[in-house]
Each structure stands twice: as C-alpha cells, then as structure tokens.
Write a structure and sequence with these properties.
The protein has 265 residues and is an alpha+beta fold.
C-alpha cells in the first residue's frame, strides 16, 4: 500500500480544500477531518505507486508539503533498536538494547530527535457467578432449594502514558527508541536523578547538545496520535482488550524524517 501524507500547509489551505478533496474523491468535510488530525496527516492510500506519486506532485506544485511511502517501509517495533542501557563518549552513543545486543552510533550522524507520548490502554470485562437467596424458589420447593445462581458483570479500564524519543541517523535504517520507564540511566553519571522523568529530560538535553544540527521535534507530546486495538483476548465470557498508539507514533515519526529528507517540512 502506498500512503500519501500532508506535511506542510499553505495560507490558502481553507480555500483550496474543495479542490484538494476532489483529487481524492472526498467530500471537503471528510478531507478536512483527515488534514486537521495533525501533521503529518495521512490523506490517501493507493494500491499502485503512480496515482500516489501523481497526487504528491500536484500537492507540491501548489506549495504543500507532501510525501509518499509504502507501508512496508515504516520501521515498526520489530525494526527498532529499543534502548535499555546507554553511555556517552566523544561524538558517540553506545549501549545495549532490550535483548542485550550492543549498538554504537556517531552523534554527528543523527538527523532527527522526535519526542512523543506513548499511550497504552486496557479494558477488561469479567463475568462472575454468585448465589442469591430466592424466596420464590424456597417456597416452591419447601425450602429444599433456597438459592439461585446469578451472573454479575464488571469492567475495568486503565491507561498508562510515558515519554518516548525516536533517534534517526544517516548510517542505519533502524531508529533508536528510548522509553522513559524502560531505560537504565546509570549512563548519566553525576547527572543521575532519583526520578525517571527528570533523567529522561536530561538524556534528551544531552542528545540535543551532541547533535545540534539534527531536527528536534516534540509536536507529538501534545498532538496525541491515534490509539488502535493491539490485542483482544477472550476466555469464556471474559474479555480483555489492549490498545496502543505505538504504530501511529512510529508512522508519524518516520513521515517527519522522510519530509525532512525531501524538503517537505
């Protein structure tokens, strides 16, 4: 699948909306709903490359930022380096990922540092059986059967949020992913604090200082990306649903870097 995303708007966007919508065979309202979801915004999906490239060319000709990518190009969780331990040296960042595999990158090769908020939500629905005194049954059976079984349904929801940072380099296609609550911060040395949120901000500051020419973007801290269902488990009448915005964060970060490389920010 070939995805087209808007990455930059123009001052004429509102007036252009009907025309842009017609290129996608959409009603203006539906197009605006997609475009206003936050940039980069996916506005179209095509089975073939030609119509996707044609749309991007028309958008760029009117001054809009636009990129196209294939869904298979997006580095999802299985194509990321999930950092667990790290340490800094002169122009270098090295460490271990969550499978204890080593990594080593040059900070001068960093092209983008993109922050986001990771959201993981869960919902569980449970049905339990209990016994309840039944006057009618007791009278009808002469006291032989005084209780009946009833089902009680209950539900619970939870949501966990944490800061994450994507680090993209020129030298490798896989980005490094730093997750606030999954990092060991001993690599901060004397700057180590007792609170993970403080340590995460210190790490971000050190990375920015080590890669001053890299794009730094934190729009996804406030512009929360869409949360989608990631797993459903059913046992009898009990169900558990897990949801996450990880895939949407992965895509949005990749689109920003692609737009940077193609001059479309």
């Amino acid at each position: 699948m070939h995805w087209v995303a808007l990455t930059r708007l123009t001052a004429a966007f509102e007036g252009d909306a009907p025309l842009l919508a017609s290129w996608l065979s959409l009603a203006p309202y539906d197009f605006l709903m997609r475009a206003r979801s936050g940039l980069p915004a996916l506005i179209g999906a095509f089975a073939e490359a030609a119509p996707a490239n044609d749309l991007v060319a028309k958008l760029r000709a009117r001054g809009y930022g636009a990129v196209v990518c294939q869904s298979a190009d997006v580095p999802g969780a299985n194509r990321q380096i999930h950092v667990r331990e790290f340490q800094f040296s002169t122009d270098n960042l090295s460490g271990l990922d969550d499978a204890a595999r080593p990594f080593d990158i040059r900070l001068s090769q960093v092209v983008a540092l993109i922050r986001a908020t990771s959201i993981v939500a869960s919902e569980s629905n449970t049905t339990t059986q209990t016994s309840k005194f039944a006057l009618g049954r007791a009278l009808a059976t002469g006291g032989l059967m005084m209780k009946k079984k009833v089902e009680v349904a209950s539900s619970a929801t939870s949501e966990d949020r944490e800061s994450v940072l994507y680090l993209f380099t020129r030298s490798q296609p896989e980005p490094l992913l730093f997750r606030e609550t999954h990092l060991h911060y001993q690599g901060l040395g004397a700057a180590l604090k007792p609170v993970s949120s403080q340590n995460f901000l210190t790490l971000v500051q050190l990375l920015r200082a080590g890669a001053p020419r890299a794009l730094y973007d934190e729009r996804f801290l406030k512009q929360k990306r869409k949360v989608g269902i990631s797993a459903v488990v059913a046992v009898g009448k009990d169900t558990s649903i897990s949801s996450s915005n990880a895939s949407d964060n992965d895509l949005a970060a990749y689109l920003l870097v692609l737009a940077l490389e193609e001059g479309q920010l």
